[in-house]
Specification:
It contains 20 helices and eight strands. It is of the alpha/beta class. It folds into three domains: 23-216, Ribonuclease H-like superfamily/Ribonuclease H (Nucleotidyltransferase, domain 5); 226-318, Orthogonal Bundle (DNA polymerase, domain 1), CATH 1.10.150; 333-420, Orthogonal Bundle (DNA polymerase, domain 1). The longest helix has 21 residues, at 239-259. One of its GO terms (molecular function) is 3'-5' exonuclease activity.
Length: 421
């Protein structure tokens, strides 16, 4: 399992493993399966999954920080009576037969929102899921990475040293395949224990609503001005400097897409920001910057200078705004006391109220209600701040029924107290 965050300067850090003594899980029970790459092998996998019973444990590996996108490079499936199957979706892009073979069986995933988009691209469409990471959050576990949860719940040590490797590598080393098989080895056992704990905590229905929400989430809309997420550019205030960031970001993105390499491996964000600050007028001036002195970066310096020159030549009317694109989102909360003092007061009591609710139900605040949604409701509240109208406002923002039931009444009381102060 890999994270889905493509970092600007290299692969993500490996998951922190727990320090408590556990029983190491070192070998898959059925041995290390060969990678399925042929139609005949896929047919055998389909037959095995169809003949199995119970939930389907599933996982996917990507090449975050190495390749341009979030393509899936390995799919792992395990079902009782079916064994573990490692399937190469690059060789077998249509895996819909596996989904059909599973029928209405529940799929068990850890951090399902990371894997489901890639599964869908290959025809893997679960009809119901159980997300062990999300279940762990709802139960208030302090660490929710798979290795940490397996250690705490099952007392087993699951090594995670290959979580951030380049899974586009072919052939995959045996140690990586062992890791991939072990990632689904105990997922169903973990699911059963977490389900029992959810039931004991009265959170089974909450979890079901969350799982279905994750399963049916539409893909995110493309970001507006994605170059504005360049790390470290927050200190740039000059529009010409922002134009340099945009031009270099776009040139890097085009290069990365063409070569199928993570953008940060071609040109780190820190180099883009350094060039924007310096605004060099020549290749020698560019390569004089420490961030452009490396051999690979220096070799491509002429193309980066072209992008810089294009930004420097733009007329003022075509320079990007320092404010960014207009959106319906509220401004940063730090600006609220000046721009909308009443909203700032609402947000203060709302945060305190939701924090108290989160503590009472023992789970992270962000799982009780999405912080951006809480800010939106406080900034643009419903006409009346009673529980019913707040419930409608949160529902319109995508909050699930269990979340609304937890926060609508307490927030209504808090806002009423604010009005009476």
């Amino acid at each position: 399992m890999t994270t889905d965050t493509q970092t600007p300067d290299g692969p993500p850090d490996a998951e922190e493993t727990p320090g408590d003594p556990v029983t190491p899980l070192t070998e898959p029970a059925d041995g290390i399966p060969a990678v399925t790459t042929t139609a005949e092998g896929l047919a055998a996998a389909v037959a095995a999954i169809r003949a199995g019973t119970g939930p389907v444990a599933a996982d996917a590996e990507r090449a975050s920080g190495y390749r341009y996108g979030q393509d899936t490079y390995l799919v792992q499936l395990r079902r009782r009576g079916s064994g573990t199957w490692l399937v190469d979706p690059r060789e077998l892009p249509d895996l819909s037969a596996l989904s059909e073979a599973a029928g209405d069986a529940e799929w068990v995933l850890h951090a399902a929102s990371q894997d489901l988009p890639g599964f869908a691209e290959h025809g893997l469409l679960p009809t119901t899921i159980f997300d062990t990471e999300l279940a762990s959050r709802l139960l208030g576990l302090e660490r929710v990475g798979l290795g940490a949860v397996v250690a705490e719940i099952l007392g087993l040590g699951l090594a995670k040293e290959h979580s951030a490797v380049d899974w586009s590598t072919r052939p995959l080393p045996e140690s990586w395949l062992r890791y991939a098989a072990l990632d689904v080895e105990v997922l169903v056992d973990l699911r059963d224990e977490l389900a029992a704990r959810l039931d004991a905590a009265g959170k089974t229905e909450w979890a079901a609503q969350e799982f279905e929400h994750v399963r049916t989430m539409p893909p995110p809309a493309p970001r507006v001005d994605p170059w504005r997420r360049t790390s470290g550019m927050h200190g740039l205030r000059d529009r010409r400097q922002l134009a340099v960031v945009r031009s270099l970001w776009e040139a890097r993105d085009l290069n990365a897409r063409r070569r199928d390499i993570a953008p940060g491996r071609i040109l780190p964000d820190r180099a883009i920001v350094a060039a924007a600050r310096a605004m060099p007028r020549s290749v020698p001036a560019l390569t004089a910057l420490r961030e452009f002195s490396g051999r690979a970066t220096k070799r491509r310096a002429p193309q980066w200078q072209v992008a810089i020159d294009e930004a420097l030549a733009l007329p003022d009317a075509e320079l990007p705004s320092t404010r960014g694109p207009r959106t319906d989102a509220p401004p940063p909360p730090r600006a609220w006391p000046d721009r909308n003092p009443e909203a700032a007061a609402r947000l203060e009591v709302a945060r305190a109220t939701v924090n108290a609710v989160a503590e009472e139900v023992t789970m992270p605040v962000e799982n009780v209600v999405q912080p951006s949604l809480l800010r939106a409701v406080c900034w643009s509240p419903p006409e009346r701040l009673d529980a019913d109208h707040l419930d409608e406002a949160f529902a319109a923002g995508g909050a699930r029924p269990w979340q609304r039931a937890l926060v609508a009444e307490p927030l209504a009381r808090a806002f009423a107290g604010l009005a009476g102060a």
